[in-house]
Amino acid sequence: MSGSATTAPSRSGLGDHLTFGIEYEFLVPYLFSDENDPLKHVDDLSPLFRIYRNNPIKEDELVVYDTLTKLFDSHGLPTKVGACKYDSDFAKKILDRYSYWNIDEDESVQEPEFNNPYALASKYKWINVEIATPAEPDIQIAYDTSRYVLQLLQRTYRVRVNLSCGLHVHVGKGVERFDLREMKRIGSLIWSTEHLLGSFNHPVRQVSYHAPTVRTRSIMSGFPKPFSGPQHEWSTSSGEVWNCGRYISTDVRPGEEPASWREQNQEPEIVEAFQRTRQEGHYEPFQWNSPDAPSTAAEAKPTQKTRPIIFEQEFRTNPQGTGRTPRVRTLPQLVTRPNEEHEKMLEGFEEVLETYRGNITFTHREADPGVWEGVRQLSQAPTACDIAYLLRVGSRSYVSTTNYICTRIASSTDPRTIEFRCAEGTLSDWSITWGRICVGLIKFAIQSSTAEFLNVIDKCDLSMREGGRFDCIDLLDAIGLPTEAELAERHIQENSEEWRIQFLDT
């Protein structure tokens, strides 16, 4: 977020809000300044990007990226690290690189030369672009800023998205990692809702190499393991021992410092003292108050404490029906139980993606273990790393927890977000709605009461059974997102034919 000329903006703490960031992937068509535009006769088209032929200074790609950067800077949208204020050097190290709009290339985005369904593709030259928003708190002005940027971009230059483009939403807690309890909830909701989230987005994403689904490709689904299990006790070549499994990514008890404190305080005596509180018969919170503690540990200790469980009710979501008039649904009920017709449709989209070299091949898979079996395994995981391992697909999945594998946690500077990769590329207002949905899912996972959470999980299980009636719209209503549910109804209705949405007979 940009600040005034005299006061550096503050990004410390970000309050109690979740944080989010959105990555937009798209293509910019361009021609040399002396070439004819095949679409110049079309009214209301945005200007075509033009480049001087044989530019002696910069390659064409750099001209596009530099021009977009200047466009953002001229409209008060920072594109480089500024003088932001942070609570600590640790917070600065984690958040500074996500404090600005990042404009870069993405080689997975392409306009194919052959078998391209877009007839005019060969008439233009194309530059792939990815624009990432800053990490922002979940507040209205942050979403409004993203909407403004999309309008600015499309008003200034002609741009395009195709099936090689994705829309990725990162959800986090600022400088903090999600703790073990929260990761159990998040992992369980990801596993249970994945087949419902597919209805919000183009089916092609379910067979994309860049977003394999956890219900078909993860360790927990029975897919062949592409790698070994969690490496909690790994020692580096320099002799450093990872503390993820025995310290950083274990549970955070009421009254304990958050995981970021552990990341900054890994002296052997502190880790050993912590482990003593995890021995059998010990349930007390870990407190490091030793007078012999290194001075660096005391200096690194953050001011933010883990919120006591007694206050959890303050931050609960407000599901529909609690002091709210029920929303009237207009979209027919969607088919949610996997069937042969759905599988054939996905195989057809797999062939479509071959044009963009981004498909995966359908191979034999073990039977889906089901919603509750997945939740059982995740709820028994001893660390956040184990949860990330169970949901891992070898790369970043449909909804990815890769930032919580051992190597990422051990580095302490890697991202600490959950990444939703399941949406196809778009520069429309739907991208803002989808961002709100992703944030809302995580918020429900970590803030809802046990009864509310298990009720939704049970309905997700019901949706997989014969005669079950609980679809993606019901999910949004159940987790307290009625506005997003209404917008999602329109979005699905508008795309139902192309996406081959199946509706229940009414």
Descriptive terms for the model:
506 residues; alpha+beta; 8 strands; disordered N terminus
What order do the helices and strands come in, and which of them pair?
Elements: E1 19-32, E2 49-51, H1 60-74, H2 89-95, E3 102-104, E4 125-132, E5 136-137, H3 140-156, E6 166-172, H4 180-197, H5 214-217, H6 244-248, H7 259-264, H8 268-276, H9 295-300, H10 340-353, H11 371-379, H12 384-390, E7 399-400, H13 406-411, E8 418-424, H14 430-447, H15 450-463, H16 472-478, H17 482-499
Parallel strand pairs: 1-2
Antiparallel strand pairs: 1-4, 1-5, 1-6, 3-4, 6-8, 7-8
Helix pairs in contact: 4-11, 4-14, 4-15, 14-17, 16-17
The oligomeric state of the chains shown is single chain
Low-confidence blocks of residues: 1-10, 293-323
For the termini, the CA-CA separation is 48 Å
Q: Average pLDDT across residues?
A: 84
For the largest beta-sheet, the strand count, sense and barrel status come to: 8 strands, mixed
Strand content: 5-15%
Number of strands: 8
Specify Rg, calculated over alpha carbons. Answer: 24 Å
